[in-house]
Amino acid sequence: MAVLDMPGDAARVIQAVRAGGVAIIPMDVGYAGIGGCQDALMRFFRAKGRGAHKRNAMLGNLDLHDELHRLDARGRQMVRCLVEDYDLPVAVVAGFQQDHPLLKALGEEALAASTDGGTLAMLLNAGGFLLELTRQATAAGQPLFGSSANLTGTGTRFRAADIQPEIRAIADIVVDYGLVKFHRYRRSSTMIDFRTMEVVRIGSCYEVIADVLKRHFDVDLPPDPGLDALPSGHLREAQRNYA
User: Fold this and answer.
1) Which residues pair with 59 in a beta bridge?
2) 20 to 30 A from 155, CA-CA: which of 44, 56, 93, 201?
3) How confident is the model at residue 242 (pLDDT cuts 50, 70, 90)?
């Protein structure tokens, strides 16, 4: 008998998002705040104290990645290797199909605030709840975008109980699954631009991702300088503005 009601919790999140609300959800790489329209995303931005130049990421799966992202065969093979063969979470940055129904449903203003330089970031394979939520949202025609559920500059939260009151106060629903899987990394997802193999953010499972890409594709990712040198994981030379 299941202890968690992932289908029911996902349905409740989608109901809140469809009504213009903000949801706080658990993922293997940390808790996130998500919305599906410009008003919800801006309320979350303001609560976070987040710079207007920062961009949201889309919650997705491999099917959405295939439909939305514009990427060559080698790039797609790398993504599938990481997700399917090695079961690793990764945020994929690539060009995208702007006329996709889910992106049209988000609206032009929110889409502009969630993309950067002609690219869209999509988080893949960050846990069972994310998979169920994405499945239901896609079936309902509801796009889901967001970022980590924390005040800007304070680091990813790995327990719902640790999310600051200012963030929880604007949430219409909080799904609390306790301590998330990859909390020991103390960073969010690893984010890579798969067009150029630029590392936008060093995060969870980075050393495994780097090893996989080197062994199978002869791709050399930069070394992780460590948490003390790079707490957020964002590389200074990265050109993408995703949070």
Assistant:
1) 123
2) 93
3) low
Question: To the nearest whole number, what is the mean pLDDT of the chain?
Answer: 94
Residue entry with tokens 């599906």: 36
Q: How far is CA 70 from CA 47, 106, 138, in A?
A: 33, 19, 19
Tens of pLDDT, residue by residue over 185-200, are 999 999 999 999 999 9
Q: Smallest Cα–Cα separation from 188: which of 206, 208, 178, 203? A: 203
Phi, psi of 144 (to 5 degrees): -130, 120
Strand partners, 69: 96
C-alpha 21/C-alpha 41 separation (Å) is 9
| Token duo for residue 111 | 């889409």
Task: Read off the CATH number of the domain in which 15 is found.
Answer: 3.90.870.10
Cα–Cα separations (whole angstroms), residue 44 to 20, 33, 56, 209: 12, 7, 11, 30
The span from the CA of 90 to the CA of 221, in Å, is: 14
User: In the chain, how many domains are there?
Assistant: 1
Residue 175 is assigned to a structural domain of this protein: yes
How do the residues of the chain divide into helix, strand and coil, expressed in percent and rounded to 5? 35, 20, 45
- CA neighbours closer than 13 Å in the CB half-sphere of residue 5: 6
229 lies in some domain? no
Give me the residues paired with residue 33 across strands.
24, 147
pLDDT at position 237: 53
